[in-house]
Amino acid sequence: MAISGGGRTLDVRRRLAEFQNARVLVVGDTIVDLYTYGVALGLSVETPTIVARRASVSRTLGGAAFVCRNLLELGAHVDFITTVGEDDESGHVAGFAAPKLNLIAISDPGRPTTVKHRFWVDGYKLLQLEVGDDVPVGEAVAAEVMSAFHAHLDAADTVVISDYRHGLIAPATAAAFVAGANAAGKPAYVDSQVAQNASNHTDYRPGAIICLNLKEARSIDPAFMPSGEPAAFAGLQARLEARMLIVKLGEQGSMLFDGETVVAAPAWPVQAADTTGAGDAFLASLALMGVDDPLEALTLANAWAALSIQIHGTVPPALGDLAAMLAAGSHERP
């Protein structure tokens, strides 16, 4: 099975087979995603509040755990370092199991397990409640995390740092993760959220492969405008000193800058049901593909992310759907 376009060919079967032998070391914040779905009944008599009847409740693992779930679905072996509180919710994280998963969940008694509870009524997200503590973990927990990182680094082919800004990764440890990966000759892929926080991407310099969405890129360089010209990335690169920069552009696809040239790949034309976790899906598939062939990597990462947004909630796509999508050739490679 091969996908051709622009004089190039992506050997799908070969690349998917290579995923089965890959080992990825993931470090990051786990989020327990709780979804309550309901049906609207009307407005409350007392206040202008929607009244709904609960239809169903589901619980999944998001944040860095969702990156792991995508990696596992793609076939990789995963060593996952994360932290949990000493509470009932930590049991949901402890129950995360798969044949190719090695979970290293470090307990931090001083903080709760992060929970995001989303309430959906008639297909509309009505409310999101969060439980968590974004203050950096203490020195003892940070030391335990770093010890686990170095213990599993040699066996890894690739390092992924999924920083959801919930306290696991402090500035000093961010730099140490990248420096350790570089010293061991392992690529370090970094994705750090800017949702309600200022950017911390400079903590990961130098030498990381940094994934950004457009909002994150502009939080670092407000003048950034996506373009095929290398000069467009000069401001970002000057601040981040990255090995490579990847910018995710949603419906416009994605771009990669390697310090000299810009490579762009279009998005796959699909109808989005829920964009939650699309960046995690992109990150997982990109890290497995590697960036030796940037166009090939972006093409497959865009495809996996496109499959992800067609699913409601933090549920990874199916590997078989990726093979079918690439085989069908929804768009040619540029």
Could you write a compact summary of the structure shown?
With 334 residues, the protein is an alpha/beta fold.
Taking Cα atoms only, what radius of gyration do you get, to the nearest Å?
A: 20 Å
> Count of DSSP helices?
10
Indicate the percent of residues in helices.
Answer: 25-40%
Judging from the principal axes of the Cα atoms, what is the shape? Answer: globular
Largest sheet: 9 strands, mixed
Integer average pLDDT: 90
Strand order of the largest sheet: 7-6-3-10-11-12-13-14-15
* Low-confidence segments: 1-9
- Roughly how many Å apart are the termini? 19 Å
Number of strands: 15
In words, what does this structure look like?
The chain has 334 residues and is α/β, with parallel strands linked by helices. The chain has ten helices and 15 strands. It is globular and about 65 Å long.
Which properties best describe this structure?
334 residues; alpha/beta; nine-stranded mixed β-sheet; four-stranded mixed β-sheet; 10 helices; disordered N terminus
Q: Mind sketching the topology for me?
A:
Elements: E1 2-5, E2 8-11, H1 12-19, E3 23-28, E4 30-43, E5 50-63, H2 64-74, E6 77-84, H3 90-94, E7 101-107, E8 115-121, E9 124-131, H4 139-153, E10 158-163, H5 171-183, E11 188-192, E12 209-213, H6 214-220, H7 234-240, E13 244-248, E14 254-257, E15 262-265, H8 278-289, H9 294-308, H10 319-328
Parallel strand pairs: 3-6, 3-10, 4-8, 6-7, 10-11, 11-12, 12-13
Antiparallel strand pairs: 1-2, 4-5, 8-9, 13-14, 14-15
